[in-house]
Write a structure and sequence with these properties.
Four copies of one chain form a homotetramer. Chain A is α+β, with helices and mostly antiparallel strands. Chain A has eight helices and eight strands. Chain A has one domain: Class II aldolase/adducin N-terminal domain (L-fuculose-1-phosphate Aldolase), CATH 3.40.225. Chain A has helices spanning about 5-20, 80-85, 100-105, 115-120, 135-140, 140-155, 180-205, 215-225, and strands spanning about 30-35, 40-45, 60, 65-70, 95, 130, 165-170, 175-180. In chain A, strand 1 and strand 2 (about 40-45) form a beta hairpin. The longest helix of chain A is centred in the C-terminal third of the chain and has 24 residues, at about 180-205. Chains in contact: A-B, A-D, B-C, C-D. The interface of C and D includes residues 186, 197 and 205 of C.
């Protein structure tokens, strides 16, 4: 039994949620689960169909992207995961999908406006879309740079990765994260729902405006603030 | 066995309909079932996933929002349910979802126009959208005030909660109700269907107009009028 | 065993296809199957949920709308079915749904333009939308008049009910028919697919034009013409 | 046992994927699998429902469209398949569907712009839409000419069928292909996903532009270039 059995199972279970939640077709996505004490994460192998996955096929990689255990090649997006784990110390899982509506916003190079409480229950700002990276970065170590593309956006916009657990990478697709791999996938599904509702909102009322401040904070606070009263 | 077993089972069954009818993901919704003779209702516990629910986990709350039986914390929207039960004496069930299309209309702050007989089979008016409440009300007892936000809208527009069993809460999402919890959920699904058709209607014909009066009344009357001939 | 067992089973099976093909929720639809030699048809009882149906619950009605066998009240749309069977001698089944996209076109009061071969495989004309009936007709025998509303449209536009087996009733929803109840339901599903594609086509290209004549006829003829070579 | 058992099973399995991937209703599609050494392909029989298919019902046809084995009539689109196999020597499977979004783009007579990496992972150009053929060609051997309509477009636009494995036939629907029948169906599902995302992208941002060159090539190359590192 691998010493990384726990994160292999967590990563496997989280990856299997992607097709169940209609967030991917074929191999369009990957989830990882980190073990911070060991300084590694388990991630989906590249190009393997979900119905052929098993916990044992998960690849163990360190935070510099070096494979530590496993015979399969890890997801082609592995370096993006590695960079985020290395620099954002409080996340335990990362999910990447090409879910339909979130990807369409990423392709449209637009932030998703916070139009309602479904969105505000998760975060009180627009979900930002990182502009495409420079040609030099693309031609360099592309997936590695994608991690910095995301972190640079958060720095520029003074966002906290602990409060906002989702982002759109321009012309590409969303990345989400959280304390666990399961939470990262949860956030992917929520982002997809928010992305769809936001487009519909603009179609119903092209002059729709963002949620008022008081309501935005009320919903975020009742779930995440010091006096939160949502959940058990 | 709890003396409230009947409403616990009714509330449980109705809550379980929400994911089955594709009206919620994760914990995005809650349904309650009232026992008017006992002056209480059973409601979903807060933040518990549908596949982990059971009748025993339903929380019994009185019409002032005080928990009467149950160890879990009730839905964060419990006070909204309590207010509606307290003031609207003829309803036996309430449902709240963030279903995609109805929520998009709520986010767009628009009433849903009565474009066809699918809508008129249920009610003969536009489905109204309550404007967002004042900042004072939000910062006060928010969920309690949401109940009054809904009732105030009905008073202003001279609507009867017994004829129109659904409403949009601006920037938030829909609430529906009925004689039973099951009927409240039924109304949530109907509202979602109407909301989707209404957007599509406007997309197909931006100049689409409401149903003519005679047809509106005919369909409502054949289901709900004194000479109704729909159903058994 | 009823002497009408065959059409009861045909009607039952065809009705059960409606939820399976995602054409209805709850009781939003009805299908009938005719026995022309006996001058009757079997139709869904009114307001009964699909999962509670059985062949025995189908109601036998004659072409004047009089119940011949069965204890339940027939569908509230029964008179529309009766009128069509009485006047259109070569149809053996009728289906009525409130399927999302077809209903949206009906609510928008627009004909569905023939944009592609999916549509032309079934008929070579726009799928017409009958204008709402006059107030007098609505207040009279509404469902009976709906049958004439449909037939009048076909007369005015010189359409053949044997070539075009589908219609939109303005502000209401679609009716489809065919040699059998099964074919009527098949046509409902095809109409829904065509209705969705037509809206998307206009969204992708607001200047989209109808299929050229030669292509329209080629596709219709290869399925339905004298030298047809589609199917076995 | 037929000497063509392998391609019969490959064609059967690939055809059965179409309804599973929600790419067809009823008989709206067909897939074939070629045996290049024998100079034949196995294809779905015409107008037979998917749930009635079996490997034995597949029809064996040569590259001139002549039936070699099988008692059923082959798909009405058989000659299109035959022409493509005859002229494009490196394909082993072809799929044709009327999937909703791809067909809508074909009906709109528009190329699908390459808006993101989901598209660029498969090919670095817009997915082209062949203009409708001339009336003479339609009235001639229509399905045979459809093959040339596709090949002519690839010649005109200097496209390689080995790099771009999908096309829209104007006013009709998509065709896709690949080394195997399974890959052809895979491409049909990917095309449908790309087609939906592209429409949504334009709806979210009517001024959306294509992916920048560097990113387009990066994604295509990492999957298909000489130094590709996607998959196992």
């Amino acid at each position: 039994m691998s010493r990384y059995q726990d994160i292999k199972e967590a990563a496997y279970n989280a990856n299997m949620q992607l097709p169940e939640l209609n967030l991917v077709i074929f191999t369009f996505g990957n989830v990882s689960a980190a073990d911070r004490s060991a300084g590694v994460f388990a991630i989906k192998p590249s190009g393997v169909a979900y119905n052929e996955l098993s916990p044992d096929k998960m690849v163990i990689v360190d935070f510099d992207g070096k494979t530590v255990e496993g015979t399969l090649r890890p997801s082609s997006d592995t370096l993006t995961h590695a960079v985020l784990y290395k620099h954002w110390h409080h996340i335990g899982g990362i999910a990447h999908t090409h879910s339909t509506y979130a990807t369409a916003w990423a392709q449209a190079l637009r932030h998703i406006p916070v139009f309602g409480t479904t969105h505000a229950d998760y975060n009180s700002v627009d979900i930002p879309c990182a502009p495409p990276m420079s040609d030099e970065m693309i031609k360099g170590d592309y997936e590695y740079q994608t991690g910095f593309q995301i972190m640079d956006l958060f720095k520029e916009q003074e966002l906290s990765y602990e409060e906002l657990e989702m982002v759109l990478v321009g012309n590409h697709a969303p990345f989400t994260w959280g304390k666990t791999a399961e939470k990262a996938v949860h956030n992917s599904a929520v982002l997809e729902a928010i992305a769809k509702m936001a487009l519909l909102t603009e179609q119903i009322n092209p002059a729709a405006t963002r949620l008022k401040e008081a309501l935005k904070w009320k919903h975020f606070e009742r779930k995440h603030g010091p006096g939160s009263y949502y959940g058990q």
